[in-house]
Amino acid sequence: MGGLGLEGRLHSEGPNPRSLLGIEGVPRSEIERLLERGRHYKAVPPNKKLATLAGRSIVNLFFEPSTRTRTSFEIAAKRLGADTIGIQALGTSLSKGESLVDTLNTLAAMNPDIIVMRHAASGAPHFLSRFLSIPMINAGDGRHEHPTQALLDALTILEVKGSLEGLRVAIIGDISHSRVARSNLHLLSKFGADIIACGPATTVSRNLPSLAPGVGLTFDMREAVRDADVIMMLRVQLERQNVEVFPKSEYFRYYGLTLEHMALAKPDAIVLHPGPINRGREISSEVADSQRSMILSQVENGVAIRMAVLEWVCLQ
Ligand code: CP
Q1: Burial of 175 (C-beta count, 10 Å sphere; 0-12/13-18/19+)
Q2: Could you give the CA distance from residue 236 to residue 167 in angstroms, rounded to a whole number?
Q3: What CATH class has 147-297?
Q4: Where in the chain is the domain with CATH 3.40.50.1370?
Q5: Which residues does 292 contact at the CB level (< 8 Å), separation at least 6?
Q6: Is the model's pLDDT at 3 over the cut of 90?
C-alpha cells in the first residue's frame, strides 16, 4: 500500500463490524436479507421520500470515476431521507498533497454516519476501516471487490429467473482485473450457481478453479455461452492494465458478445453488463439494445440495493 498516501495515524478505535467491504465475508443469510430489502425498496414509488435515515449524513468519497455507483448511492441516500456529501478526489486536498489517512481522519472528525468509498487500490477501504469507527461501504476497490454491484446483479437475475441455484452463469471478459467478477464469483458460489469463466488467457488465471472451487474455465467464448442461462459480460479494464494484455482490435473478434453467441445460449438467456459498456469492444449494439439485455434493469436495481445496504449498515 506504499505510495497511496497512508502517512499519518488513524485515531479511531475501529474496526466497525457494520461496514460492507466485500461479499466474501458476508453469510448467505445476510445476502438474502439484503436482497429481500432491495425488493422491498424497489416496490416503493421513486417520488416517495422516506424517513428511514432522517438526520443521518453519508459521505460519498470517490477516487475513481463513476456514473452508476456514485449517482445511485446518492439517490438511495436521499430517498431514505439522509443528507449526502459527495467528494471526488480532484476536488479535495489530496490534490494538494494531503495523505489518504489524513483525509479520512478529517472526514471522520465531522462525524458522518457512513463513508462510501471507491479507490483504485485493492484493499484501501479494508485497511482504513480497521481504524475508523465510522462504518464504510466499499464502492469498488481496485481489482478486488465491488459488493453492491454483485448484490444488484443477483437481484436482477432473481427477478427474471427466480433462483440462482443451478443456473449456468458465464462470466466473460477481463476477469483478472475485474472487481465485479470477483464479487459475483463469491456471491454466485454461495448460492450454488454453475459458473464458467471465460476470457483471454492473459486475463484469466489458470489457477481460477482452485481459487474459486466449482468454477469452470474456458478460453473459448462459444463454449462459455453454450446453454447459458445468464451471460455476464465485463468491461475491459484498460485503466488497470500496465501492459497491453491483448491487441485491442482483436478483442471483439474473440470475446465480444454477438447475436450469434446468443443463439448458442438458452432461448431465455439474459445478458448483464455492469457498465459502462464499450459497444463494439465487449458487446455488439444488437445485443446491448435487445430484449435479452438487462443492463438498464441493473442500473435501476442499483438504487434499490443501495437503499437496502445503507439501511443495513446504519440500522443493524
Ligand atoms: N458498474 C459501475 O461500477 O459503474 P460506475 O463505474 O459508473 O459506477
Answers
A1: buried
A2: 25
A3: alpha beta
A4: 28-146+300-315, 147-297
A5: 262, 269, 270, 271
A6: no
Chain segment 260-275, per-residue pLDDT in tens: 999 999 999 999 999 9
Task: Look at domain 28-146+300-315 and name its CATH class.
Answer: alpha beta
Global pTM exceeds 0.70: yes
Q: Judge contact between 290 and 16, C-beta under 8 A.
A: no
Residue where the block lists cell 454466485: 188
| Burial (CB count <10 Å: 0-12, 13-18, 19+), residue 69 | buried
Phi-psi region of 162 (alpha: psi -120 to 50; beta: other; left: phi over 0): left
Which residue in this structure is represented by grid cell 466474501?
A: 24
Q: Distance between CA atoms of 262 and 179, rounded to whole angstroms?
A: 25
Q: Angle 147-161/28-42 helices, nearest 10 degrees?
A: 70
Pocket of ligand 1 (CB under 6 A): 66-69, 140, 149, 274-276
Of 61, 62, 63, 68, the residue with max ligand 1 atoms within 8 A of its CB, to mutate for a pocket test, comes to 68
| CB proximity list for 113: less than 8 A, separation 6 or greater | 53, 56, 57, 58, 82, 134, 135, 314
For residues 98 and 71, the model is more confident at 71
Q: Name the residue with the closest Cα to ligand 1, atom 5.
A: 66
CB 148 within 8 Å of CB 169: no
| Residue 67: φ, ψ to 5° | -110, -60
